[in-house]
Amino acid sequence: MRVQHAARHTDRFGLFPGKQGVMSVDTVTVEDSAASADSSGSTDSTASTASAASAGGAVPNSRMAALYERDLACRGLGITLDEVSTGRASMRMTVAPAMVNGHGIAHGGYLFLLADAAFSYACNSYGPVTVAQAAQVTFLAPAAVGDELVAEAVERTRSGRTGVYDVTVRNAAEKVIAEFRGQSVMLAGQPHTS
Fold it and tell me: Which of the 8 DSSP states describes residue 154?
């Protein structure tokens, strides 16, 4: 099940004026414009009372929403979190004119950032703070200004405090633009045991 979390994001670089992000992480619908925060910072929306125990491996809405709110890099570049479930995440980005290199195609650094962001949400879906210890990307096709790219991260394995995740970046025509593999390490919390 999905939650649609529409939010107006700060665009520190002026790349995406008026762009709205969409986040899918639980079983309730939340509209930021309709939710009011109290003095403790919680909202009056149904998301603050939603159960995290929904079917299909859904991840608690409040934890992922809080992580996304602190993610100034993604929010500033208009990268949106579409969906998160246990060991999986999907993020989206539209290539802006300021994201191209001297050849007029999307700079590899932005493609890596999009894939790395999806990797981050997938490996943090379990709860304990988890970061990248290594990553590599293979660029397979160019992306152009205006292309909407989707990065889908999938866990391959976890053992102890480490994990391996693959991320595929595709354009709207489903053409694979890049393949990314990230290795994660858990910094806090209990390690995974099989």
Answer: E
